[in-house]
Amino acid sequence: MVLGDFNIHAEATLTGAAQDFMAAMTTMGLSQVISGPTHQAGHTLDLVFVAGDKLVRVEEQIILPLSWSDHHLVSLRLTAPSNLRRGGGPIKMVSPRRLMDPKGFLTSLGVLSAMEADDSFDALVARYNSEMTRAIDMIAPERPLSQHGVTPAPWFTGELAEMKRARRRLECRWRKTQDGSDRTRSKAAIRSYSVALRAARKAFSTARIASANNRPSELFRVVGELLHPPGGGGPPDFSATRCSEFAHYFADKVAQIRSDLDVGLEALPGEVTEASVCSILWDSFQLVQPDDVDKILGAVRAATCALDPCPSWLLKQASGGLVDWFMPIINASLSQGKFPSSLKQVVVRPILKKASLDLTNLGNYRPISNLPFLGKVLERVAASQLQGFLEDADFLDQSQSGFRPGFSTETALVALVDDLRRELDRGSVTLLVLLDISAAFDTIDHGILLGRLSGMGLGGTALQWLQSFLEGRSQMVKLGDTCSDPWPLTCGVPQGSILSPMLFNIYMKPLGEVIRSFGVRCHLYADDTQLYYSFPPKSKEAPRILDQCLAAVLAWMRVNKLRLNPDKTEVLQVSRMSDRGIGWQPVLDGVAGAGPQLGGPPGFGADA
């Protein structure tokens, strides 16, 4: 906005210098909004220019003569979109966190006398949502608040803030006086502040790394944040149109994959889509006790979903007094074999895969799901009991790692590297194929998965609960405070779910059997599959065996509604330098060399 007494006659009819001046302001995107004379002589001298007249609107304009001036009083009331207001962010309704006291929340919530165990299941969930909403509104009613654009760094202390202010005062004094002694003091303050700033940042990072000792996942996250500071990662455009574009893209991507797999699908001899006949070994979940609920509430991550009636962190802090609220819902869900319909909706937030990627390309975003807190509690109860059943039945493949006790990322890497080094010591050549599956979690077929669950001995309300968990789901994209329309999900398991990786392991179990039937070893970690075959350097059979194995893997994936991504599939040769040049090129999707190029992994010394 530009305003003041420009001392030109800016009436409706412009001439001379006034016309040239107004034309120059227009070329800079500035529009004049004053209408009417602002001087007692009847001329318009006091002008107000705004940038973007479509964004800033004049709601009210008052021009009043003054007895003590020849210029009139000009009063304007302007409206502007939220992104032009002070604070750098939109004005939104929030519940102040400082008012969210766990004790006050429990007092407002009251006792559970009104929630009876014999109430209908849907009534229990509806009552939970309404009472939680009522309690949070009582202790922390929503109020308008501006989101501030800059959040101080966690290591920026009050002492550093005072040093920064002192540095600025000395600099301003020197620029005003141009005195040599003031310049010396200003430079000394700048150096002291820079040294203190680096020391504070280093001390904070050192403390974070030390706190992650013996916790590899936490250490990996801390190092990742230090090397690649988070910058939001989300798309800059929060409009409803952009929201809908993301929703259509994510939905169409899965639909296209399923459509491509359905075209020309042929059944294979001995395919594993048929569920094997098995007697029922587990037909119901065990009901939980108060101690179980308290332990589960403490284990669930406090990531609040937009669909939650109150913040998850508040529920965790008040968990000791909420056992009686959660236990009837959990036990009703398990005993009736139902997953609440109101908890089947997923909120998806698009996150940029890498900071260097194009922000306007929808394919560069990964959909990150956020689930309601109550749903995550129910999932954790089911997952813990399902995990116990899988361990007792010894169902999962020994080559499957991830999301199971004793089979972590570290053990998978140790096993793979150890196998490769052993074969290298024997003088063998090993070809390692790293398979990449497109949107693996999103394309799982519910019918096939339920058949696998039934084939491993699940039945009764246990199988009904898992079927209810899978079916009737929907999701919507959320950008800022804008949400897309929800769309139904007919396949896949929700990403970000506690239970989904376990179900995915069950779904992928037959793949290991297919690979090993050719004498090829493998490791499976979630949707990452590595198959490798070792052979003497002069063997002529190895390429043929690997081609047959890959053909069977591709056929199995097509029948099981999974699509291999040739462009991201890699092939590595591990051998001594003298044994290079095997010359094998895998055949993927019927095209030789369509995807990976043969290469060698680093870190194996003399091998390629």
Automatic annotation (TrEMBL):
* Pfam families associated with the record: RVT_1 (PF00078)
Extract the InterPro entries matched here: DNA/RNA_pol_sf, Endo/exonu/phosph_ase_sf, RT_dom
This protein is called what? Reverse transcriptase domain-containing protein
Q: Which residues form a coiled coil?
A: none
Q: Where are the transmembrane segments?
A: none
Record lineage = Eukaryota, Metazoa, Chordata, Craniata, Vertebrata
**Domain Reverse transcriptase: residue ranges:** 332-589
Q: Which organism is it from?
A: Anolis carolinensis
Q: Which CDD domains match?
A: RT_nLTR_like (cd01650)
SUPFAM superfamilies per the UniProt record, alphabetical: DNA/RNA polymerases, DNase I-like
